Every structure is written in C-alpha cells, then in structure tokens.
Prior knowledge:
Chain A is α+β, with helices and mostly antiparallel strands. Chain A has helices at 56-61, 119-124, 126-129, 133-155, 196-204, 242-261, 274-281, 298-301, 307-311, 328-339, 369-379, 394-411, 491-500, 505-518, 533-540, 571-577; strands at residues 18-32, 35-42, 45-51, 69-78, 91-102, 159-160, 178-180, 188-190, 209-217, 229-238, 271-273, 295-296, 314-320, 349-353, 359-361, 385-392, 422-426, 431-434, 439-442, 471-476, 479-486, 526-532, 579-581. In chain A, 28% of the residues lie in helices and 25% in strands. In chain A, a hairpin with a 7-residue loop joins β7 (178-180) and β8. The longest helix of chain A has 23 residues, at 133-155.
Amino acid sequence: MYRTHTCGELRMEHVGQQVTLAGWVQVIRKISANLSFVDLRDRYGLTQLVIGDQLLTKFSEQPLGREFVIQVKGVVRERSNKNPEMATGDIEIVLDDYTILNGSKVPPISIMDNSNDSDELRMKYRYLDLRRNAIKQNLELRYRVGREARNYLHTQGFMDIETPFLIKSTPEGARDFVVPSRMNPNEFYALPQSPQTFKQLLMVSGYDRYYQIVKCFRDEDLRADRQPEFTQIDCEMSFVEQEDILNTFESMMKHIFREIKGIDMKDPFPRMTFDDAMEYYGNDKPDIRFEMKLVTMNETVKNKGFKVFDDAELVVAINAKGCSEYTRKQLDELTDWVKRPQIGMTGLIYVKHNTDGSLKSSVDKFFNEEQLKEWAAKTGSQPGDLILVLAGREERTRKAMSELRLEMGERLGLRDKNVYAPLWVIDFPLFEYAEAENRWVARHHPFTSPKPEQIHLMDDLSQYGNIKANAYDIVLNGTEVGGGSIRIFQRDLQEKMFAALGMSEEEAAHKFGFLLGAFEYGAPPHGGIAFGFDRLCSLLGGSESIRDFIAFPKNNSGRDVMLDAPSAIDDYQLDELYISLVKQEPA
Amino acid sequence: MYRTHTCGELRMEHVGQQVTLAGWVQVIRKISANLSFVDLRDRYGLTQLVIGDQLLTKFSEQPLGREFVIQVKGVVRERSNKNPEMATGDIEIVLDDYTILNGSKVPPISIMDNSNDSDELRMKYRYLDLRRNAIKQNLELRYRVGREARNYLHTQGFMDIETPFLIKSTPEGARDFVVPSRMNPNEFYALPQSPQTFKQLLMVSGYDRYYQIVKCFRDEDLRADRQPEFTQIDCEMSFVEQEDILNTFESMMKHIFREIKGIDMKDPFPRMTFDDAMEYYGNDKPDIRFEMKLVTMNETVKNKGFKVFDDAELVVAINAKGCSEYTRKQLDELTDWVKRPQIGMTGLIYVKHNTDGSLKSSVDKFFNEEQLKEWAAKTGSQPGDLILVLAGREERTRKAMSELRLEMGERLGLRDKNVYAPLWVIDFPLFEYAEAENRWVARHHPFTSPKPEQIHLMDDLSQYGNIKANAYDIVLNGTEVGGGSIRIFQRDLQEKMFAALGMSEEEAAHKFGFLLGAFEYGAPPHGGIAFGFDRLCSLLGGSESIRDFIAFPKNNSGRDVMLDAPSAIDDYQLDELYISLVKQEPA
C-alpha cells in the first residue's frame, strides 16, 4: 500500500503517529521562505501538510504543482490554527519526506466547486471534471441510492436477474439502436429500449419478483437532459393487482428517502387520475408542492361578447395568492412570458382582486365588476389575489397554463427543493392518437392491460380514446420518476391489442411471436414498474440536470466528446459485417 | 393480491387456516372417482391440494391441466400421509374452490428436473426451461453470488459506478460489436469489451475504489461455452501494489465461498509463477486439487539411442499413483486417447513400477532396468505407480501432457467437484508473439505494467519474450475465474507500450488520446481485476456449462433462438442510419 491512512481520516487521536498518505496536491500556500502548507486531497477528504526547514532543498529542486500525485511521510501534529470546517481540521502532518508519483500539467478546467467552465470543455476533460467535489458527491449519492434500492428489493424477495443486451429489433414507439451481426450477415441485433418482454417472460417462468438496475437505449433526437443510454430500476411482480404494486414501490420510495435524505415521507402517497391531473394541473405530472389549480372558466366567461373568449376552445384561470399588487411592469413581463414561442399564447388576461375587495381587470371593457365577482367566486380568489387567465385552443392553452402555474409557483417560492411531494397518477388512457402517423398508439406500451371492465370497448374504434389502462406513474415534484402497468397476460387480448395498433397478424408473430407463444403455456397475472434511475438520483441530489449524475454522459448530439465517439471505423470492419456506408446528400 | 401465502410457506402451525394460493399445476393425481390431488407450484415451493366431493362438478366442467395457472381457496389440513422430502409435506389444502387464471397447452419440453430435451428446443422455449428447478436454483445462486460480491465490496469502500455502453471502437485484441449512429451518420459506436479505460479514468479522477457488475461484449467466433455478451465483476483500486489487490480479492473469494457454500477457504491462497505453471502443469491455469506434476525428462532420456526421444524437443512424464496394474487394454485406450486429433500425439510410453519394485516399460528394447530406475527417481514413482511419458514438439507435447494429467486426475477421482482449490498465477509475460499477425501483442492488454525493473528491456525487441508483467490470474480447479494487472499510469511508458505493439503515434492518439491525455494530469498508481461472473457462478454451482447460469443465453452461432435474433431490419432503418447491406458471395 502506498498509504497508512486516507486524507479524510486523521484526528486528534492520531497526534504523534508516523503516517504515510497519498493523494493530489489541491493547493500550495507559501507562508514564508521556509514554510509552506499543502492541502492533500483524495476521495475521502483533505489533509494539511507542512513543508518546513528539513525539506527546503528538495522542495526547490522537486517543486510541487496543483494536481501532482504525491506520497508523503510525516508525523501528525495538532494544529495551532484549527479549521472547524474541515473534518481533519484539528491536525496537520509535518513532512519528513515526499515522493512525486506523477506530475500534472496545469488543468484546463477548474477542479474547484464552482466551475465556470463551458459544458463542452468539462465534457472533454470529464476525468478532471469528475474530481470536482460536487460531481463526486453526486456519484456517491447515486451509488447509495442504488444500494438502498437493492437492499429494499432484497427484503421484499425480488431477485436481480440479468436480461440480454443483444436482442431483436421491434420498433414500436421509440427507435432502436441496432448492431450488425458478423456471424449472421445482413442481420441485426437491437439494444433493448427496456427489458420489458424479458421481465414478462420471467414472470411466465415463475420468477415471481424480478428487478434489475439496467442500462436501456433509445435512439431519439436528444432534448436537453435526455441521454441515448440511461438507467432504469426495472421491476416486475406476479399474482398482483395495481394496488399491490403501488404499495410495494411507495414503500421503496419511502425507504430510499429515509436512508438517503433522512426524510420520512407520509404514506399513503396521494393518488390522482390522469383526467384530474389534466384538468386541474394541465399535465400528467403535477407538481403538488402547491395548489393553484387550473379552473376552467368557459361557462363563466363565454358568450359575454368578448371575442377572444368566445372564439376560444378553452378559457382557463389560476389564482395567484397574494399577487394583487403586481405592477404594470410585472404584468407586462408575465404577458411577454406567455407570448414566448415555447409557450405560444397571444396574450394574458388578469383580474386584480384588490385588498379592499374591489376587482380590476385587463378586460374591464367587456366585463363589469359584477361579472368579475363571478370570476372571483369561481377561482376562489380572496382580496390580495391575482387571477390570471389564458384562452385559446384547448391543448395548447392547458399546457401554457400548466407552465404559467409552475412559473408563478417558482416566483412565489412554492417549489422548495427541500420539500418532496410524491404523487401517483393513475388511470392513464390506454391509447393516444398519433396525428403524424394517423393511427392509435399505445400510450404506455402495447403490453399494458386495459381496465378489465373496458376490454369490450376495444371492439369499437370510436371508443379508443375513452379506454383507460391499469397504468400508473409516480411523480415527484412535477417530474415523472417512474411508471408502469398491469400487463396483458392472455394471448387473445394481446393479439387484440396488437391488431388495435394496426399490426398485422404476420407482423405480430414476427416481432412478438415468442411472447404470444409464452402466453399459451401458463402465464400468470403480472405487472411492474420502471424508475428512471438517473432522474431519481438528480431529484434526490436537488439538481435539474441528470448529466451531473452520470459518470460519462453524452452531449446533445449523442457524442462522447472525451472519447470522440461515435467515430469512423475501419473498412475491414465494415467488410466483415457485410455493410457499406451510404454517403449523406449535401444539405 | 391473488394469494395469502406462497406455495412454500405452509406448515403444521397453519392447520385450520383459510388460505388462498396461486401457482402452476405441477401434477394431477387422480386417486378415485371423487378424490384428486394436485401439486401446486410457485417460485417458493410445492403444496398439495385436495380436490374432493364438493368440487366434483366443477372439476369435470373446468378440468385442470399441467402448467395451468390457478388460484385456489381452501383450508389447511394435516396430512395423514406426510412427505418428509417436501418442505410443506406435513400439510395439504382441502379446496373450497379454484379459479383458472390462465390455461396451458401441453408444454413442448419437460419441466421436470431431468430433462432430456435437446438444447435447441430448450432454448426456443427458454421461458419454460427456466421453470425447471435446476435452472431456477442456478439463477438464485447467481443472484446470491452477485449480492455477496456487492456486500463485500461495499464493506471495502468500493463504489459501483456505471460506465457507458456506447463507446469508441478501438479494436486491439478481440473484435468489437459496433453500433451505427443515426445522429452522426457514417460513424459508429462500439459496445465495450470491458470498462477497462473507463475504470482507469475513474482512478485518474480520484474515485480510489471502483467496481461494477457489468455486461461486456466480444464479437468472436463462439466456442462452446462462450457468449457474445457476458458479465464481469470489474474492479479497480488506486495507490495499491499487486500484493494489495491479491489480498483484497482473495478475501472476496473467501467471503463468497463462506456465504454461498459454507466453505472456509484456507488463506493465503497458493501462488505460482506463470513459468512454474507451464513447467509443472503444462498450462497457465493449473488444477491443483491434485499433484501429478509434469517432469521434464530430456536430460534423463535423450541420447540413449531411442529416436523418438532423440528427435523430440520435449520428453515429459507424469507419475500416476497406484496405476501399475493398468491392463494392456487400459493402456491401449490411453494411447488412443492421446492420439485423438484434439490431443494430437503419435504415441504414449509407459513404465509400470510394479509392486514388487520391478520396472516394466513399453520401451524395454531401448532402456534397461538400470536406466528405468533413473526414470523412477526423476519422477518420484514408487512401487505400484505408473509413469506416463510423451515426447514431441515442445508446445504441443506440454499441452498434451497437461490434458493427460487432467484425464488421469479425473480417472483417479482426484477432481472432486466439492473440493475448491484456488490459486494465484502471477508474473505473466507482458507480451506474446502472434504468429498470424507476425508481431508482439499484449498478453493481458496494452494497459498492463511491465515489472518496473524490466522496463528498460522494452528498448530491445529480442528481450520482449522475457519481460514479465505485474499481471495475475485467479484460477479455481483448473479454470480461470479472474485476472488483472497493475496498470501503466505514466504517459511515456504507455506510449512506449503502444509503440511496442506496432501502433503509430497517430493511431495511439486517435484511439487512446483521452487516456494518454488523462495520464498528464495527475494519474495515480493503480491496478485492478475482473472476474468472469458467469464462470464463477457455474463453478459455485458445480457445473461445466455457463449457459445454465444465464437467463437468456445465445447459441454457438450467437443467436437467441427464442427471440429469433439477430434478424433482418426494415429498409427505413437502414436508410436512417446511412448504411446498406452488402450481399454475401455464395460460398
């Protein structure tokens, strides 16, 4: 061993001991001509080294620099000037000698906690970026979350079973990454978008409770904070109903939050139907750290002669508590905010419910105070509040109001990072209509079971939009962290589902014959859930970005800029695989 | 929940309780017109169900069949005819009612323990094969081994850190699987052959102790029991020397064997140099459950007028204890055995060291008893033993004798599956000569450090064969279960290594620029090891085959016959990836 102790370990009780440490030079402080201090860093902490008289010659001949890797020998001494901020702040090491194990050029990015370096530079030098304390803490957190998830699932009888990565391409939903096979020329494997069918087969095989913390792959155009490879906590159970799954994984969340954050989450977690989530929050992953529900105003405000409202499919309001004193400037700014292309509204209407009880709106020309009182009653506004109203096409307007609600929640400080508000959203629609493809697609995936009492509606295309699934998401502070469903386990229902999605019998047999086959040999009722592990960790770490919770993430073009991957491969590799490149047309 | 208890849970203390179970019909035994027994199976065990008078009508209208999934309700009763072989053998359930949750066709393969079905059929219906008790126990064992490895590594401060799967193709050694990138047309990712460079970067980043139980990929022609995707327990440590790594992972092996097998392995594990392994066992993974060392006979037997020996590069013997009474027939059979093409020898010479002390050989024409006494002295044979001798080209003969030694060990019952003999093989050569490529290649991989005192030999091509590496394998009962090395951590030495392997500076920079770069910013001394997890599990499970320890293995053509993967993909997928297929020439 290159060391007797780590840099985070020494305390007063070690004073007088001869020790050997190894680590990185964090900082060198020259105090005088014959006295320097060095902070030595390793994974476990920082320790102050004292370089005094006896090392003066060596120190001038073999000077140290930032990020040098050194081994040091010396005696632990009580510090005269203790640093209570530092775990080892009571002591220092008076060096007898040091050895430079490896030098370092001046790092091109800062190793300090508050780095201002560009993302591109940080990613290129990721191995240096990973030295930053903040990132190290994130990866430590990730390790602990994974370990606690495993511990919990172990106590519940779940077995970690590995499923294959080289599988079959069955594009339905997202795009597959494919892998040409050399041994089977002109054929391709696909990388799994999730172990979905395998975990279902394991249920058919009788494994009863399965889990895996596993990489998944989706070749989608990357939005901020989406990665082509990501990690799921993937789980499946047999002989259960939705209620059993919600209870089991609610307990897992509680376990993780207790062990990682010391937070006792109240149970049961609240539940909300998809329909309610859309109506009252404008999206399927409500942030319920605060109320400020959406109020549909159509009946209250339409046909009163105001064309904007009369032409609108939806008029929707929120009541921003205590905001009646918003200035003209603030209101203009909010109006600009909703007019941004991302939000896409043409304007914002407001009603100030003044502290004296009077009502003052931006549409006084069209609505008198009596009418505005109806608005106040409908939205539940009180003196001191501000009613904000959007109008337009149903879908866009609801989405815009959902965004405005979150923005107002943010401005009012109602979205405290340290408050965790979990929520089950249930009763998702089975299908959703894909305008681009002009067909119904599975909202969750094609293995999701419709509500048993609605199965007969699958015979009537006009009813597709009304069929609900035994599908559920777990939402935390407005972010979906997991989702799952009770699965179809009968061959005939699964075939009906494939047919509903426009798949021919041949196509279904080609893509999913193994699953349909498995359902004929005693498939048990089963269901499961998958958590976005990267996202769960970032929420627990209080961060918006999942990238800082992934050791080696890719950028928005799917590139690893450190490796410079993907990259060209050799012609002989292409030849062996019986593929050739098609040149891209110039744009 | 579909059940109040599992099928492995009920005991005498439950007698009289109303219970609900769910599972698979294993066996139906019709006892009389109005009495049938059913064994109900789930992951946890078997429970006997009694179908009596009150269910006669239902049982004839809704008959059960093998592998049907049913839910049953009834009362626990003490059995009159207890079955001590069965955990639940004291009780049975007298059914009030049952519900068929799902039917089953007659399974095309046997679910029973001793299946005689072909591998191909078992793989096609893997979801049924996985129901077999033997396979289930293997996967449970695998889960427990993984969990114990994690538990041990946790106590030692190792952190599980995920490394990427979509990386850069840097073929050097095995062939990469590649993944065409849609977002970066004409460029490819590669799937990792191991996380080697990433774990080294994590050491550069200061993570100190890393591990991962992780899938790796090699596109090699498959021999029996090799899989294109396989799992490693991958570990790396900083500020350590070889001794520290051997101690750390020796303890891991001891932990796993204690927890999984209840076996206390003696430490320290024996160590043997590569050179000794080759000389005394004829291969680099000796099975040391028994001695029977190879004895080089050249000096004893050459130049005595026997042409076979005089022409041979190597004459090598083993002493088979207690085999002097081998019959002519047995000796002929052994001779045929060494003449098989897999072994490739032209003949076998023997000396019987008879119980009366006399010596009788198959080469009495060339060697008198006085000379044979020298053989006996050299090989250490005693009255009652049998000396077996092979002669020929060095490499083939040593290998053949290694095989013969194992065969004799097998015949003498010296290779007891329940005895575990671990061994460290150390001091591997740094390079080996690849005849096909006409160049030196890295025996372990290009990141392995030469012995520090031999670094200067890298300047002299004639010395390459003599340079030893700080590389080690852990061998168990003649099988390599893990291997690793102390790594190069200096840029100049790494560059020298790449150059020694015939890599130009440009190529080295293109493929491994990130690693060379990282070594310039304070890389610590480090080293690691990777265990073949599939293999380790199969050894712990007492099996030769890794396939039965993998939930969904591939066959020898790299195919998943259940999924029918790999398979053709759609033209639009090829178009999106800017690749096209090259038709294979007819053979």
